Amino acid sequence: MTTLNADQLLNAVRAFAQGPLAAQVEAIDRAGYYPKAELGELARLGAISAHLDAPHGGSDFGLAIRAMAEVSRVCGATGFMVWCHAVCGLYLQQSGNPALTGERLQRHVSGLGLGGTALSNPMKSYAQIETLLLKAQPVEGGYRVSGNLPWVSNLDHDHYCGAIAGVTDGEQPLGREVMFLLDCNDPGVELHECPSFAGMEGTGTYALRLKDYFVGAERLMAEPAKPFIARIRAAFVMLQCGMAVGVIQGAIDSMWAVEPQLGHVNQFLDERPDALQAELDELTARVMTLAETPFNGSNEFFLDVLDARAQGAELALRAAQSALLHQGARGYLMSSEVQRRVRESHFVAIVTPAIKHLRKEMARLSTQETPA
């Protein structure tokens, strides 16, 4: 890894994103090119580990979010994969398991190993939106896990991810969950291609099927899982704000790009780039303040994080729509970066936690915070 201070890291990430990464954006979005080499370079720069504690990072969630935003400003799909890898690193380090925090974490930080997160379904399960899809049967030395997950991103046959399964005795739930590291090339694991998406095809997204997958002590991240999730939940959601900030800034950039030619008529549109920039700057400052205490476990703090994440998703939708209107017909070309960014903004709004999920959790927590 390269050792850079914050400004140097951001400058290096920006240069890489606007150069080598930008050259691959269309292939990532539409042709299914998985940017393994590009993710490895971002890891080498330290862009995917800035939030981790020393010696693997600088415990700087704000820097991690800003680096993710620089990537997402150019390519929302790669920004999403940066989040997947970053949050997987968080699981590894916070697990406290020596088998996961030593060489395994070092390979992850350096980009020699790439990982994702299979927590979409568990997060929805905890919010009572879905049922938990993976089941873990206690056996000698660990668990046997079976079940199917329809969408898990930043995967390949030599990748890995953090996952959660409900512990059962036969078909009887035992009222607890176990979190573990899942290696995609192990026996009992199958990756299946997903149907084609509207965009972001190169995100390494697969359906994951497990049959009697063995989880021993060396794979365990948390047992039981709920206290672990309660500790990292704000950090998990907060890191996603980097995707939103980047996609919004990219949309604003596209608006300014046509101002010399179309400003005389674009002035009559409701959402103008200077006003959107002011909203984005305010949101970014808010997120940077939250990033100072990512492990604050209070419900009030988590409410603020959820609200910032929802604001980012909603502003991304507005900014991308406005960029399309500002660009006019040129923004309707399939090759237009604006057309891609509209689809990226839709993803920011629906990826777990989606806007509706965020609002449901905010309503629940607000009820708890405000007794009748």
UniProtKB/TrEMBL annotation:
Stored Pfam families: Acyl-CoA_dh_N (PF02771)
Domain Acyl-CoA dehydrogenase/oxidase N-terminal: 7-111
InterPro entries the record matches: Acyl-CoA_Oxase/DH_mid-dom_sf, AcylCo_DH-like_C, AcylCoA_DH/ox_N, AcylCoA_DH/ox_N_sf, AcylCoA_DH/oxidase_NM_dom_sf
GO function term, MF aspect, one: flavin adenine dinucleotide binding
Top-level division of the source organism's lineage: Bacteria
PANTHER family, sorted: ACYL-COA DEHYDROGENASE, ISOVALERYL-COA DEHYDROGENASE, MITOCHONDRIAL-RELATED
Entry protein name: Acyl-CoA dehydrogenase
Source species of the chain: Malikia spinosa
